[in-house]
Amino acid sequence: MYHFAKQKEVNILSKWCIEVIHKVQIEVSDYFTFDFRLIGSGEKRLVTENEDNCFDLDYNVILQKDKKDLLNDPKKIKEIFINAFNKILKPKLSDYKYASDSTSVITLKKIKENNLLFSFDVAIIVESNNGCFYRIINDKNSARYIWNEVKNSIDYFEKFKSIKEKGKWISFKNRYLELKNIHFKKNDQVKSFSIFLETLNEF
Q1: Lower Cβ count inside 10 Å, N or C end of the chain?
Q2: What would the CATH number be for the domain defined by 3-153?
Q3: Which residues of 73-86 are buried (b: 16+ CB within 10 A; e: fewer)?
Q4: Segments making up each domain of the chain, as ranges
């Protein structure tokens, strides 16, 4: 079963992730400028862990300036970022595993003696004119990389802010943990940010 992680440990690892992403900003600067944001459970102090697994953190890389006109080539974009993470981390961390191309994110892992120490996921997204986010997806059914709309993502920050202002934070937090454990029992591999949006949609 899941329980909430200690915020001090979350803060330490979040600081390390931010340092890495700042270096990636420099590494890909010939191609893009981008902003980034800790999202979902990490952003909202809802990070969970269980007895079998350590927690992870999720970040959105939000593309801003596309210097080489690559938006129509999402596969190339993802390759550029994977190569950047590997160039920065591989020579410096003996327990670093190469960045892997997951369906909707880049997954980075620190592993020691076959034990997972920590991982974080990075999604590459753009914001459309209507305020919705689109994320690069490795669509294995069609063997293509596509921009896929993130469901229920429009104005999610403002919606969450409204929940806190109305004094529903504790109820929201408890429901999030409940849904997290429901998905855990189903073993359906639903990401924390998706569970956060599911909770938000209920409220």
Answers
A1: N
A2: 3.30.460.90
A3: ebeebbebbbebbb
A4: 3-153
